[in-house]
Design goal:
Order of helices and strands: HHH
Distance between the termini: 36 Å
Largest sheet: none
Shape: flat
Helix content: over 70%
Structural class: mainly alpha
Oligomer: single chain
Radius of gyration: 16 Å
């Protein structure tokens, strides 16, 4: 069964380089979905708030990567 785990890890590695970035983006998608479903913010602000969240995530990741090496 370890060969199956190895294959899965290789396939996942083709698409996901930074696991923490992928997890944060998935978490943001869930949060954004909940916000939209519960109508916590007006419809005309949902898109900009979603994009702003992604920009913040990418900036944080870029700065962290730049600092580490």
């Amino acid at each position: 069964m370890s060969w199956l785990k190895t294959i899965w890890g290789e396939i996942l590695g083709l698409f996901v380089d930074d696991k923490s970035l992928a997890l944060v983006i998935l978490a943001w998608l869930v949060v954004a979905g909940v916000v939209v479903a519960l109508k916590w913010i007006p419809a005309d602000l949902q898109g900009p708030v979603f994009v702003l969240g992604l920009v913040v995530i990418f900036l944080e990741n870029t700065l962290r990567r730049a600092r580490s090496g």
